[in-house]
Amino acid sequence: MSTSPARGAGAGQVPPDPAPTRPAPRSAAAEVPPGTAPTRPAPSVPPSPRVADPADFETHGSIYQPRGPLARPLVGPQADRYPFKGRIGEPEFPAEGGRYHLYVSYACPYAHRALIIRALYGLEEAVSVSVVDPIRDGRGWAFRHGDGITLDTGGRGFAYLSEAYDSSSPGGVYSGHVSVPALWDKHAGRIVSNHYPTIYLDLANGLRAYATRNRDLDLAPAELAETQSALAEHVAWGLNQGVYRAGFTASQTDHDAAVEDVYATLDQLEKELTASCANLLGEQLTFVDVQTWVTLVRFDPVYYGHFKLARRQLRDYPALWAYARRLMTRAEFRDTTKLDQIIRHYYGTQRHINPTGIIPDPPQIDWSYPND
After folding, report:
1. Is residue 196 classed as helix, strand or coil in its secondary structure?
2. CA–CA dist 365, 38 (Å, integer)
3. How far apart are CA 218 and CA 181, in angstroms?
4. Which of these is catalytic: 244, 304, 317, 347?
5. Cα separations (Å) of 295 from 330, 357, 368?
6. Residue 38: is the preceding peptide bond cis (ω within 30°)?
């Protein structure tokens, strides 16, 4: 797939999703027969977790317009935004249940994908999770007390996620993009990866031996590889990134072009779903379903108003709306979707779009499916 600068990461953007590929077969030594309790490594005892100060936009600005000595620097479009690219199964990072920890935000669609995949395979015991506050000022993602969020229970008790990045970098200083999801090695005491496409693959395949559900589920079937690759790239540019290009730009021309991309993609998906089966590539649930759904579920509550994508709502697409609701009936999708955190994050954090930080009431959307 293309990763040319024309579709690269601009300010506040992410690069196109690399197409999911089928990983190399796991070694027999990594397998745990069904019904056999996996060998758990001795857990390390993290320091007592610290609590970040309350978000303060007056002092620190926003993550997009930071200010003050504690603010994280902006990262240029040519920087490698995902420099940590370790893989579970490499000699340095063996496949062991209980060894790895995910840093996530329920608000972030890229972290949401990791949570869905973790749930699909029942990896809750194998991979622990810490959830950052959806409200972030210029200091970045932070760990605070609150409903649906946690302190850092897997690393070194960090107050800010940037501290995990600093501690994993030469000289203890990291000046790059601090993103979620990030995968942490509790034994080595450092970040394995913040490269989201390979995090998804490692959850789906590298730790399959520790799956407690859907062991036979293949999100990247070989017979659909070419089709999935093409659709994944199209959805990444036109929809996943398209909504951000529409919402983040200060140019009317660029906004209009992005809006066209978004609705052209939705129109195509509507047509394909109308003529096909339960999911985007037929009956088989694949990576591209997860990739697409996390944007669809945010569309009406956030992107329609906040990003000014007001031509049509998701609910105006009969097939897409049925598809989104059908996936919401699955616990792996439903239980990892926190619409309150999603709305608070976008409206409360993106002050360059919503300077007042006023958070609207959530829209009244009936997500029930006829067979509920």
Report:
1. helix
2. 42
3. 21
4. 244
5. 17, 22, 18
6. no
CA dihedral (117, 122, 127, 129) in degrees, to 10, reads 70
Identify whether 277 is a catalytic site residue.
no
> Is the CB of residue 60 less than 8 Å from the CB of residue 138?
yes
304 is catalytic: no
- Taking alpha carbons only, the member of 339, 322, 334 closest to residue 119 is 334
127 DSSP β-pair partners: 100
Of the residues 108, 121, 174, 303, which is catalytic?
108
125-179 confidence digits (pLDDT tens)? 999 999 999 999 999 999 999 999 999 999 999 999 999 999 999 999 999 999 9
- Give the pLDDT confidence of 316-338 residue by residue, as tens digits: 999 999 999 999 999 999 999 99
Token reading at 212: 């407690």
Q: Are 372 and 357 in contact (CB under 8 A)?
A: no
> Taking 50 as the threshold, does the pLDDT of residue 204 lie above it?
yes
Phi, psi (rounded to 5 degrees) for 90: -70, 155
3-state secondary structure of 360: coil
Specify the DSSP class assigned to residue 183: E
Residue 24: count other Cβ atoms within 10 Å of its Cβ: 8
Q: Which long-range contacts (CB under 8 A, 24 or more apart) does 313-321 make?
A: 314/266, 315/365, 317/266, 317/269, 317/270, 318/270, 318/274, 319/270, 319/273, 319/274, 320/266, 320/269, 320/270, 320/273, 320/296
Question: At residue 78, what is the residue type?
Answer: Q
Q: Could you give the CA distance from residue 182 to residue 194 in angstroms, rounded to a whole number?
A: 4
In contact, 236 and 221? CB cutoff 8 Å:
no
Is the Cα dihedral 12, 242, 192, 97 positive or negative? positive
List domains and CATH numbers for the chain: 47-217 (3.40.30.10), 222-336 (1.20.1050.10)
Distance CA(56)–CA(145), nearest Å, equals: 16
